[in-house]
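Researcher: Structure prediction, please.
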Amino acid sequence: MARTKPATTITARDAAALVRSGDWLDYGAVLAQPDVFDQALAERAGELREVSIRGCLSVRPRAVVEADPDREHFNYLNWHFGAYDRKKSDAGLQHYIPCNLGEISDYYRRFIDPPDMMVIKTCPIDSDGYFNFSAANLWHGAIASRAKVVIVEVTRDLPRVHGVENGLHVSDVDYIIDGDDQSTPELPNLAPTDADRAVARLIAGEIEDGACLQIGIGAMPNAVCSLLLESGVRDLGVHTEMLTDGIIDLYKAGVVTGAKKTLHPGKIVCSFGLGSRSMYETIDDNPDISCQPVELTNMPHIIMQNDHLTAINNTTQMDLQGQAASESSGHRHISGTGGQLQFVRGAYASSGGKSFICMSSTYERAGVRASRIVLSLTPGNIATAPRSDMMYVVTEFGMVNLKGKSVPERAKAMISIAHPEFRDDLAREARANGLLPKAFA
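Model: Predicted structure follows.
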């Protein structure tokens, strides 16, 4: 939306004073979420009603949520949950917006009414008049093109990241807020378990020289990166939604060069990054990194243009026919669809591409061990990737490819990679429900 007057520098409190009851606000996503504005708006909670805010993957507590424990003033909605968001959802203080992450820019352009206000954190203005999005391009350009008021909260600690349309020109901004320059939030790297390492070994054995990687979040995909450091594989490329420490470790070791990429050769392509201080220092003003709008990283027709695209993602539960439930536990929402389904499809369409959905075979709750491979998904569980899209499935007990397999063949394959303790029961349930006829016993 064209701005009619030059951008003005104002205080966070003055910016928050522009919000009226009934307004729709956008806080952007991940590292772009504002902090000083958020705090100033929270201080006005008692004056406001029905202010709706969209955010995504909170990296710090949201002041508007903390200030409104009965959800009387702010309605916080979220495109993808992190740990903080999950807790607040459990308390009834925010709700998920179902989406394929790569489509969100289009939602803003086609389906969502123009937001009353967009407030996002950016790097300070550069010599060309741009406020860099840092490692959080995503759908921020699309929001800005539609929002009635655009406010940037400038923060000096954010890394400045190269990319495609990775920033807003000052002519597209209404107001500028001086941020508090807090250290950029980091994502702790969880230590891999024995199951993580076993799964990683199986997947690493399938990755060839010149493959182009998409790595999801979590200890298991990062364990794959660690093994690739030792595998001797060379000239890997990266086209991913999320940039992780594991990918950066491969880059720093010279394993990721992008030399054989078919799309953006030599570039590590991502839409956002979240990791350690070391990662932020590596990507700061680094021309090898290309942070792009999410529609350029996550749409299957773009993904498939990378030959040998290898997508590695986690799930939490799968049924015997190959459905993956990766975002909920029954009716309890825990994360989001994210880009998983789009990368599963894009990898399949890629020449020589492979998609891996990985999980440990069991989990433990209240001291009781249970199988992640089940006859039927837990009631209420959301099927993130349908059976028709599933390719490789990996647990610590093996790897199977479900493409082209019948229902009985799928059931038999899934049982073969379940924990041995549960295989007999799964086979019995499969036979009792017609998934495994006698011919496949």
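Model: The mean pLDDT is 95.
Researcher: Thanks, that helps.
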